[in-house]
Design goal:
The protein is mainly alpha-helical. It is built from 14 helices and two strands. It is globular and about 55 Å long. The termini are far apart. The structure holds protoporphyrin IX containing FE and 2-acetamido-2-deoxy-beta-D-glucopyranose.
Length: 331
């Protein structure tokens, strides 16, 4: 076979000045996610300091109260799963999402969002939605606790309709759920089993109340004896409903893959955590848990992709919805 002559480039090189102009224009080109209508440079000209403000505020808050990073991540989840990522969870409305059984006495971080919104309003009045703030704050919280980063997309608008607590009741998972219920809820939002397991890795940070793990502390068998004893100390049989236990006992304030290592040792705090690993080889989720426990890099990659996907759920864009000036108030 005759060889092709080497060295004669077949590729056209754009003249240097044209290349320069193209490079200069690059930041102004908008890369819009085809289906959601969101883009990562949405505020590039309208609020250039948005990402810097949020990053520095979140890193300050999280370094003085590491658990707040977990609470802020959860806020985005509870926003997106209930009627889409539209900041409806932030509204102070009678009968709203805050009153749902999943949120009452449980969801936190609203004051942090208010103060960040204030900083952002001071810099760019009336431009940035509360829903976009929640999405970015979630990413920066994960990063502040040592987790992976991903490019957050923007352009969400805030809901201007009354939220309902029953919608939140129905669209969020319970800590007593078994795998089939978890799979069916997450699949109703478009997530695979693997994405369910990756997103559950959020429980590598944060705390749960005794009332949510008491049954596991006293009545379950698939639990390490030392860990069970530890939970019984935190969570008495007949009192202490609001006492807190760590979702990842190995490293409660570090975003890493230790949550999965804990599951393989039967140290899951919630029933819904431990059922992802039964120790029974053929189980669909067991192998995914093992894989993440053995390889943090793969967990981080899958988690980032699943978060990006979650942050596109049911978003309002264009002329839909509104930009609230106070995240708690409709209009
Ligand atoms: C897979 C189904 C899930 C169930 C059943 C579940 C359930 C729970 C429960 C019961 C708590 C404790 C609440 C309390 O005691 O007040 C909790 C906390 C938490 N959840 Fe989940 N969750 C799930 C998925 C997720 C996802 C997908 C995320 C984030 C993307 C997430 C993030 C968190 C965080 C960070 C905390 C700790 C919050 C804090 O310390 O303030 N969870 N979850
Ligand atoms: C929030 O960020 C802004 C801009 O970087 C800064 O001026 C402000 O002090 C920060 N506030 C907190 C509480 O970190």
């Amino acid at each position: 076979m005759p060889k092709l002559p080497m060295g004669s480039s077949k590729y056209y090189m754009a003249p240097y000045p044209i290349l320069c102009v193209l490079l200069l224009l690059l930041p102004f080109t908008t890369i819009v996610h085809a289906q959601s209508g969101l883009s990562s440079n949405f505020y590039y000209t309208s609020c250039p300091n948005f990402e810097t403000i949020v990053e520095s505020n979140v890193s300050n808050v999280v370094s003085s109260d590491p658990r707040m990073g977990a609470s802020l991540l959860r806020l985005h989840f509870h926003d997106c799963f209930v009627g889409g990522c539209d900041a409806s969870v932030l509204l102070d409305v009678e009968g709203g999402e805050k009153e749902s059984v999943h949120n009452v006495n449980s969801l936190r971080g609203f004051g942090v969002i208010d103060s960040i919104k204030q900083e952002v309003e001071d810099a760019c009045p009336g431009v940035v939605s509360c829903a976009d703030i929640v999405a970015l704050v979630a990413r920066d919280s994960v990063v502040a606790l040592g987790g992976p980063s991903w490019d957050v997309e923007f352009g969400r608008r805030d809901s201007n309709t009354r939220p309902s607590s029953s919608e939140a009741d129905e669209n969020l998972p319970f800590g007593f759920n078994d795998v089939p219920d978890l799979i069916s809820l997450f699949s109703s939002k478009g997530f695979s089993v693997r994405e369910l397991v990756a997103l559950s890795g959020s429980h590598t940070i944060g705390q749960a109340r005794c009332v949510r793990f008491r049954n596991r502390a006293y009545n379950e068998e698939n639990i390490a004896p030392d860990f069970q004893e530890f939970l019984q100390e935190i969570c008495p049989r007949n009192s202490g409903d609001n006492n807190l236990g760590p979702l990842d006992v190995r490293s409660p304030t570090a975003f890493n893959n230790e949550y999965y290592v804990g599951l393989t040792n039967f140290e899951g705090l919630l029933h819904s955590d431990q059922v992802l690993f039964t120790g029974n080889n053929p189980s669909q989720t067991d192998n995914i848990v093992r894989r993440y426990a053995n390889n943090e890099r793969i967990f981080f990659k899958d988690f980032s992709a699943a978060m990006l996907k979650m942050s596109r759920l049911g978003v309002l864009t264009g002329d839909s919805g509104t930009i609230r000036s106070n995240c708690r108030v409709l209009g």
